[in-house]
């Protein structure tokens, strides 16, 4: 079993303020489609595991009875509570996948947004098997900008710029080395082996401010790592934006995806 990459205690504390204004949001229609696939109803409960600043928790909260938003980083939970606490049915819990227990109750859906790779995936799925109710599901959410799409031609320059300032994400390094299995393979070997993928593709406007926040939200370029070079990084992003955004307008095509995993012996619609 591969050991999950270690996370610096301060890395996501310093990134917390930059997540919501910087990271591409999950498409609303993707959230609706996953809800339909799983059959979410008003009385159901959702667990957002590794919730960060609560992006997915807030997306599912309007349609269910309760969302438990769980994350090990206090600053992430502080941002999430400040931003989405007014919704009233999100319970914010400090903890990681190691803290999953029956005390949390049962869930129709467990969602993870770009967080599963930080966990002991096999052990996490075993714990979730005891929490996900019959007919329920686990869904892994992600966003991606594909270089092959003309609107995203600028993105390779943006990534090259970031590479000069930061260090490679340890999880990304591990995914390119031996011993790492794709999430699909791990799920197929688990109780949640009935898989279905959902994708939503949208063209969006992106601002220079959003790009700065996006950079500082990445584990390889968080303020904890960049330090005194943060101002220099911001200037270079502004210069890149001016070069690739005629008229001050820049577009990106974002692919939001969800890998929905259910038990093979459950009924599937």
Describe the structure in your own words.
The protein has helices spanning 11-22, 28-38, 55-60, 74-84, 121-129, 155-165, 170-175, 183-188, 208-217, 223-226, 230-244; strands at 45-49, 66-71, 90-94, 107-113, 132-144, 194-206, 250-262. By secondary structure, it is an alpha/beta fold. The protein has one domain (11-262): Rossmann fold (3-Layer(aba) Sandwich). Strands 3-2-1-4-5-7-6 form a seven-stranded mixed beta sheet. Helix 1 (11-22) runs antiparallel to helix 9 (208-217), helix 6 runs antiparallel to helix 11 (230-244) and helix 9 crosses helix 11. It is globular. It starts with 10 loop residues before the first helix and ends in a 7-residue tail after the last strand. The mean pLDDT is 91.
């Amino acid at each position: 079993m591969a050991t999950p990459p270690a996370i610096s205690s301060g890395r996501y504390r310093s990134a917390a303020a930059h997540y919501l204004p910087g990271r591409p949001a999950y498409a609303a229609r993707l959230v609706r489609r996953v809800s339909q696939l799983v059959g979410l109803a008003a009385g159901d409960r959702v667990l957002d595991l590794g919730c960060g600043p609560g992006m997915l928790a807030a997306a599912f909260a309007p349609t269910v009875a309760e969302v438990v938003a769980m994350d090990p980083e206090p600053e992430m939970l502080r941002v999430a509570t400040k931003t989405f606490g007014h919704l009233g049915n999100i319970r914010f819990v400090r903890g990681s996948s190691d803290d999953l227990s029956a005390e949390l109750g049962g869930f129709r859906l467990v969602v993870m947004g770009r967080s599963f790779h930080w966990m002991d995936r096999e052990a996490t799925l075993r714990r979730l098997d005891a929490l996900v109710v019959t007919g329920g599901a686990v869904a892994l959410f992600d966003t991606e900008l594909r270089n092959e799409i003309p609107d995203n031609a600028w993105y390779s320059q943006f990534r090259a710029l970031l590479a000069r300032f930061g260090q490679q994400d340890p999880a990304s390094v591990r995914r390119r080395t031996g011993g790492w299995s794709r999430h699909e393979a791990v799920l197929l070997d688990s109780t949640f082996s009935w898989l279905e993928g959902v994708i939503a593709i949208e063209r969006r406007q992106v601002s220079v401010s959003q790009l700065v926040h996006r950079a500082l939200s990445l584990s390889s370029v968080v303020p904890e790592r960049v330090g005194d070079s943060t101002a220099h990084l911001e200037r270079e992003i502004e210069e890149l934006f001016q070069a690739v955004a005629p008229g001050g307008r820049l577009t990106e095509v974002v692919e939001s995806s969800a890998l929905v995993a259910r038990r093979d012996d459950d009924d599937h619609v």
